[in-house]
Amino acid sequence: MASIFTRPTSPEVGNGSRFGRNGSQPSPTSSLSGNGQSPITPRAGLLGRLGQYWTTYAPFRNPFAKKIDPLDDDVDGGNGIHAITRKTDYWFNRELYQLEQEAKHLAADWAEKGLPRHDVPRSGVFEPEQVLAMKSLELFRQWRRRVRVKMQDQIQNASATLNRLIGEARTAVNGLEVTSNERQNTRTQIESFRQFKEPEGVRVGYDRILKSSFSFWAFAVILTIAEFTANFPVFRLLLPMNSTLVTLAATLGEAAESHTWLAGPLVLFQDILLHFEAFLVALIAVVILVFLGKTTGSAARSIVSFSAKDHPMAATTIRAHRRQHTFIFVAGLLGIASVLAFMFYSRAQIAETAQSRVRADSVGLRQAIADQQAAGTDLAKTAATTQRVTDATRTLQQHLDDAAYAQTVQRINDAIVLLNIGLVLAAMTLGFVYKREDL
User: Fold this and answer.
1) What is the model's pTM?
2) Residue 320 within any structural domain of the chain
C-alpha cells in the first residue's frame, strides 16, 4: 500500500477537465509550499520529445500573431479582482487537481486491496479522507493567505499610486490656480491700460523756441566768424609764409596804405589769402567746433524734453530716443573738449615758435649786412646785398611783430579759452532753441 502522504503525479490529463491547463494539457505538479514549481514528467518516445520541443520553442510561430499569456485563460480579464488573483487561482486549481489525482490513486489502491472490507464494521472517517481533508484545509489556508497578501499588496500599490497622483493633481491644480491668478492680474492690467488711454491727437514732441530760420543762420554765421577771428592768428603763426610771400605781403601792405580807412579790411583780407593753409585749417576747425556745439545742444534738447512719465504709452520709444541722443551728447562734448584743448596748447607754444623765427631772421640779417659790407664799392654786388638787407630787415620786423602778438596771446590764453567756451555754449544754445522734433 502506498503511503497516504505521497502525492502521485499523473502523466495524463483528461480532456475538458476544468482543472487542466486550457482544458487540453496537463499541469505540472507542485508541492503544498505554494512555490508553483515541480519537476515535469517528460513524454515517452520520440514523438513526445518533439511535441515538448515544439511546445517550448515553437520554431514556426507566427511573428504577427498576438502573444497570449499562457497563465491566463481570460485574455480580456481587465484590471479587476480576477486580474489580481488569477495566478493564485491557477495555482489553487493546480494544487486541487493534484489532490484529486491523489484521491483517485488512493481510491484505486484501496479498491485493489479490497478496502474497506464490508464484513468489518468501521466507524468514523477513513484515513485517506482524513489526510485529504487536512491537505485540502491547508491548501485553502494557503490560498486565502496568498489572496489576502496579494490584495494587500495591490491595495498598498494602488494607495501609493493614488497618493502620487493626488500629489501631482494638487501640484497641477496649484499651478492652474497660479496661472489663473496671473491671467486675472494681467487682464486687470490690460483693462486698466485700455481705460488709461491718452486723448486722441496728443502730440509727443516739441516746437522750436527760435522760430525764424534767418535768425538761426545769422547767429550761426556770426558765431563762425567770431570763432574764426579769434583762432585764425594762432594758425597763422603756426604756419608761417615763405620769403616770397613775405615780400609780396610787404608790397601789398604798402599799396593798401593809400586806401586810408579801407586799409584794415584790405590788409586782413590779403593776410588771409597769403596764409591760405592757415586759413583752411582754421576754417575747418571752427566749422567743426560750431557744428559740434549745435549738435550737442540739439541732443540736449531731445534728452530733457522727453520723459517716459509724461507719455507712458510711448515710454519704450522715448527711452530708446533718449539713449541715442545721450550718446550724441557725450560724443559732442568729447569732440568740443578735444578741439578746445588743441587750440589751448597751440596758443601756449606760439610765443616760443615766434621767438625761434626771430632768432633765425636776426642771423640772416647779420649775414646780409656782412655781405653788404664785404661788397664795398662794387656797385653790382652792393645793389644785390642792399636788397637782401632790405628784405631781411622787413622779414625780421614782421616776425618781431608776430612774436609780440604771440606773447600777448600767450599771456591771455586763459581768457581766450573762456571766450571759446562761451562761443561753444552759444552754439549749443542755438542748436537747443532751433531743434524741432516729433516722435
Assistant:
1) 0.46
2) yes
